[in-house]
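User: Run a structure prediction on this.
Assistant: Running it now.
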Amino acid sequence: MTLLAPQSDTDSDLLAGLAVELDAAQHEIARYHDYYAGRHPLLFATEKFREAFGGLFKTFADNWCELVADVPRQRLRVTGFRFGDEPGDADAWRMWQRNNLDLGSLLVHNEALITGRAYVIVWADGAGRPRITAESARQCIVLSDPATRLPMAALKRWEIPGGSLEARLFLPDRVLSYTAQAGSTVSGWRRTNTVDNPLGQVPVVEFQNKPTLLGGGRSELANVIPVQDAVNKMVTDLLVASEFNSFKMRYLLVDAKSEAFDRLIAELKTKAAALQRYLVVAGGQQVGAFPETTLEGFVSAITLLTQHVATQTQTPPHYFYLKGEFPSGESIQSAEAGLVAKVEDKQVVFGEAWERVMRLGFAVQGDPRAGAEDCETIWRDPRLRPEGVVVDAASKKFTMGVPLRQLLEDMGYSPQQQARILAEANPPLEATVG
């Protein structure tokens, strides 16, 4: 969550205000994480469902929320950074690898897609090198300047073993440490340390999913959850129908005044499951059965709701593997056009945040690239294309005079892979590539 105006300029008031906003966001964040993990409340489970299955399906969920978040995240892969016209900055990539950001970036993107926002903190380690850490929206919040959209203050708060709380208040010129007992929100915080911030800016970067001009991010699951609840409702109804209609319903017509009727009722009452299968009616002596009830209506309704999820989130239908033949390669390319465009938008938004992270990392080292305005995040191509198609296109571009390094980039090779290919070619091609 990004706040746009401070309520006070004192450190204690900033801490209190940010802590209150962080507390207010916890319920929504927990809800999104629960739905992503498949922990869905069965709000519409009927009494028949509970009678039939008891606690057997207590944690049941036909979970599409995880898929909706995972599909775009799987296409978001940072492969390098460049400054100006260089193919890739080796120092930036070493910084990336030293901080385990192949994994860290995956966690940041996942958190942002699920909750709408995630954070990265950049500081110096004991050796004076950049320490870059992925942070959760459960623990961090940022206050932004309404004029520049840059962070004015940021808070990270977490619980430590034993039940106590710790917090860091990040300001452009200093970082303040606090401690408190568990349960403390606005009051009860005690300052334990203050250090100077040599970076001159708040070293916390916010990653917003679906940002707006007024700030704040939006979860990928925001539109999915109501439809997900409806899907769960339809599936629980299907399970109840299958339980009571998986066998033909039989009926007995007997004389209600006979001893045979009394014996039959007594026997059926001792077999509860059997009693549910029979309709006993007085009058004559006849045995019959009602026809089975089809479940196709439930299946059609669930399929329709799943199609709504696919349409609203631009998740290609073949990920849900709905009814019909699995699409061909060309059909898949066409079906994924919306997803690719969606991921490319996220590359722009997240790329700006990663570029700020890199500039902060260089600022920790006192490197002039901290002020570089031409930093660019290099992403893996979000399109999934057959290798033969990629190579064929590269061959045609080569005949048109496109430089080899550009062709390697178009083929999906990272800057590091490009350098190895060019250096290990016989003869080496590095000097001949423009």
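The first helix runs from residue 11 to 36.
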